[in-house]
Amino acid sequence: MARDGVAAVRAARSSNSKKRSPAHKAQDVQVMSTNSSSIVSKRSVEKLYYPREPHFFRFFVHKFMRRSPLINRGYHLRLHVIDVLVRRFLQGVGPDSSGKTKVVVNLGCGSDVLPWQCLSRYPEHCGRARFVDVDFPELIERKRQTVAATPELLAGLTGVRAQQQQRHPSVVFESDRYVQIGCDLRELATLQQALAAVLGDLAGCEFLFVAEVSITYMETAGADEVIRWASTLGDAEFVLLEQILPDGDGHPFATTMLQHFDKLNTPPKSVRAYPSVADQQHRFSSRGWSTAVRVWTLWQAWADDTFLSPADRAALDQVEPFDEWEELALFASHYCLVHAKVVSGGGSAAATEATPMPPPPSSASVPVQSVALQFDACAGQRGQRRFGTAMLLSSQDNSSSTSPVVLNVMGLGAKSRLQSCDVFGQAGHGDNNGALAAREFTLGEGGPASRMCHSLTDLGGGHGVLLAGGRAGPSSPFKDCWVFQQSASASGGAWKRTHDLPTPLHRHSVTALGATGMALLAGGRGEADALADCLLYRPQTGWVVCEILGHDRPATVYGAMLCALTGGETNPNARFSGVYAGGLRDGVVADQIFHWELDKPTIRYTIPRPAGALDEGCSRRLLARFGAACLPRASASSPGEFVVLGGVASAHLLDHQDEILVCRVTADEYEICSRLVGGQGMITTTTPPLPRPLLTGTSALLAPPDGRRAVVVGGGATCFSMGTFWNKGVYTIDLGAPLCSSGVVVDGVPEEDAPPRWAHEKTLDIIPGSGSEQRAAAQDTASSSASGGPSPTVTAIARVTLETPDDFARVLRDGRPVVLTGLDLGACVSTWSLDYLANKIGHDRKVVVHEATTQAMDFAAKNFRYATAGFGEFARRVAHGERLYLRALSHDRPAEKPAALADDFPALAPDFALPPQLSAVADSLFSSVLRVSGPVNMWLHYDVMANVYCQIAGSKRLMLFPPGDVEHLSFPPGASSSSIDVFASLQSSSDSSTTTTTTALSQTHPHEAVLSPGDVLYLPPLWLHTATTVVSSSGGGETSIAVNIFFRDLDGGAYAPGRDVYGNRDLAAYEKGRQDIARVVASFQRLPPAARQFYLLRLADELRRKAQ
């Protein structure tokens, strides 16, 4: 370009820049900042999902951060669909092609590494291809600097030009196959000039424009102009990925997404102009893309063989366990993928060879039934849990004097799985009996451990409520089963262990068989595969496999709908029938609807034909769901009616009119009879009225006395990286007739029919274990042990004095715990007290503490709560003997950064010093933690890193067990904590007439240390330990103050990658080993149970021998 032309371009860019207001310029900066978060997620995907490929994002992301499985899976899908379309474009280069140069232009590229990925993955197709990255000049300049300074990025590039040799002022980097252009996409004339400068005759090129969530941040007119302009350059394709609003901006996911981007000041500006797949189709076809336009939602693309085969989807589960299917469906349904093509001369080549996904099913021919929908808000964060399961308890004599109580049991809370249940009470107009019943409701001791995705089934007839299975992590299902028996007074109840499932399961489907006490289970996900069998539960004999008769058999799925609709109410010999539909198979919702008939213990499935106005394809795709609730319609006018609530459907987002369906099924046919929506009869206790619920992860049940209403509690979803949406109250849905148009009404509902209000009354902890039965068994075992069982010997931990660092090196090599004496820890030993700490730290400084209800804290049972308090208040309460414990966290970034005494409590740091003998600790230091404890016991656990525990004030008693004792101390798979109360076991032994301990410790090798101020305990990695504050002989409260320093004693590669704030994440080899075990177990699933058990036990014995 001539020098005066360069000057003209620069002048034009300066003039355009001046036209931008300060607010618009600030927003441009915010848009550029979205790149930072995106590439961190893409780096996470690159490292986990593409381990055998060269990694390029690592040069733009300085610190690896492992994202959650949901974000990893979503970003993998984003990257993969674009990669497939780019690969197909590049593969057009060959003897049968047009001979034009293939040019991939990444619009708003940020730090994407698409050119290097293509050059690495498809070198045979890139010989005559060129890659052009385009973004804001400021951002592209940073990318240029990174490329120029990184030999690995320059290695594959030839013909790199010096900056002063660039052929256009907007071109900041140029090589034979890769170019960077710094240009605002609103300046298309400048962009076209720059392309012409580096490519020559544009008519000799075939373009693929990629815009991955980039032009959506432009004003809609500007983004549309980019699309139109790209279609004028001759032969071209366009790949667009951006947000849509398939059910409007009122959908809970859409609301959360838009609020997130608004908060970042980066609103997607085209999303309301083009909210649907059809709108995006028209957007492109009306702007020059006349040859072909195909549009998918990402949820459709996930299920389309164009992008992923069933084997491809299954392989992803080997990368990391995944079970966030509802949330993936919500995210992927709110993003669209457009592939458009225009061929000069009016050619008719297709954009892809694949058949486009069918349009979302239209339910317009199904009548809409307006019903009463009541919402009762819960205060604050009460009642917020997902993937729990609810049960409804009422007086066993059906008296009206005691109102029903709803328990929403366990599930997932804001941060972790919950070991509790929410208690909801009911009160009508002026009636407080329900609230009183809920407030007085109590649980007996003992019960299942925390879990989610389990089932609760009311067996009827006084048989109790059956809890079956569930999971901890996605690859850690449970097989234990429990029955909840309500007390005679209906004021409480207790759990009792019953027959285990034959195999661990979660996301299985269970339905009661009348009030016979029996239940039917179908599907469910095990440790590796889904269950292909049906199981029948009888209270006396447990679970048996049902024989399936006939040729029609459902696909092996989990998360399906199962409901018994006809059969004898109390006759155990009666036949039962019902519906089984949907579920997940190979990562997509199975298109299946079955009628079943059970003649115990055989079951026969039939495939009914569709009836009604909908064609078969539409009706099946509306009814077949994953994670939906299925309830019999008690007010049904004909047998076989049921109601479907929520869940996710195959390849499309359920809109608000399709979420709740009334259906019927017989052996011959099924029909979607109506769609239920809240109408003029909405009742609400909030202003403004009725927040829209998100019907995923909810618990739904029928309310007494007639079962005409459904009660929905809990639910919500993690909305990808954009926040979490929670349902904030209880919804009551009228499943009966349409709203009356006459008569006395209360808030739009006939007065006599107005449902009582629901209120969250309290949350009750469920203490895991078998309660009194477990204690009796333990006492029996203890008695047996006293009459001749083995008794462990408690070994005193050696106390040694260190003179030099070499002395400590010998301690490290020996690998056994020792108490180090005579070390100089600084002035802290003589000065630190609660008052001193409060004055130095500040009385108002907020700290997060453990607030315990009993002396023995239990991490698994969560019998404590995290509370925030000023340090002065915390110190005062500890001094008065309250059960409090402080494990200090990083002050500024507690969720991201390990604790560091010098940074977190700078006023205390000068008082404490690591002695020179412990220089090895300082050289490999990971964290330094302040610990302040009242009269509580730290739970039994292990640390992956070595550490030294420096006792500063007070005294501490610690019990340690060597790593080999882990198999005797009830550590669940994958957990680093146990619920065994070591001190209680030892105390019960000392109080007895023998010297033996209970069986829990009988095969262990306990070591004991009592630390005084100035003592330092060296704790080798993986030694299991628990600690308690030593109480004075007078019974007064004692306080322990300590500094706990963790350090790495292994090579860095031994530790698992990713965030590890506590320094307690298991080693990488163990995490991989658990995944390998899951795969090994899966390989035996198709064998008969006896053979499977035989060979797995043999393998377990081999592992045990190698461990020895």
From TrEMBL:
GO terms, molecular function: tRNA methyltransferase activity
Q: Which pathway features in its UniProt record?
A: tRNA modification; wybutosine-tRNA(Phe) biosynthesis
Give UniProt keywords alphabetically.
Methyltransferase, S-adenosyl-L-methionine, Transferase, tRNA processing
InterPro entries recorded for this chain? Cupin_8, Gal_Oxase/kelch_b-propeller, JmjC_dom, Kelch-typ_b-propeller, Ppm1/Ppm2/Tcmp, SAM-dependent_MTases_sf
Q: Which SUPFAM superfamilies match?
A: Clavaminate synthase-like (SSF51197), Galactose oxidase, central domain (SSF50965), S-adenosyl-L-methionine-dependent methyltransferases (SSF53335)
- Top-level EC class as recorded in UniProt: transferase
Provide the E.C. number(s) assigned to this enzyme. Answer: 2.1.1.290, 2.3.1.231
Question: Which reactions appear under catalytic activity for this entry?
Answer: 7-[(3S)-(3-amino-3-methoxycarbonyl)propyl]wyosine(37) in tRNA(Phe) + S-adenosyl-L-methionine + CO2 = wybutosine(37) in tRNA(Phe) + S-adenosyl-L-homocysteine + 2 H(+); 7-[(3S)-3-amino-3-carboxypropyl]wyosine(37) in tRNA(Phe) + S-adenosyl-L-methionine = 7-[(3S)-(3-amino-3-methoxycarbonyl)propyl]wyosine(37) in tRNA(Phe) + S-adenosyl-L-homocysteine
Q: Where is the composition biased (Low complexity)?
A: 1-15, 776-792
GO biological process terms, alphabetically, are:
tRNA methylation; wybutosine biosynthetic process
> Keyword tRNA processing on this protein?
yes
**Stretches for region Disordered:** 1-31, 771-792
Where do the JmjC domain residues begin and end?
A: 903-1064
Protein family: Belongs to the methyltransferase superfamily. LCMT family.
> What function does the entry list?
Probable S-adenosyl-L-methionine-dependent methyltransferase that acts as a component of the wybutosine biosynthesis pathway. Wybutosine is a hyper modified guanosine with a tricyclic base found at the 3'-position adjacent to the anticodon of eukaryotic phenylalanine tRNA. May methylate the carboxyl group of leucine residues to form alpha-leucine ester residues.
* Protein name (Swiss-Prot/TrEMBL): tRNA wybutosine-synthesizing protein 4
Species annotation: Lasiosphaeria miniovina
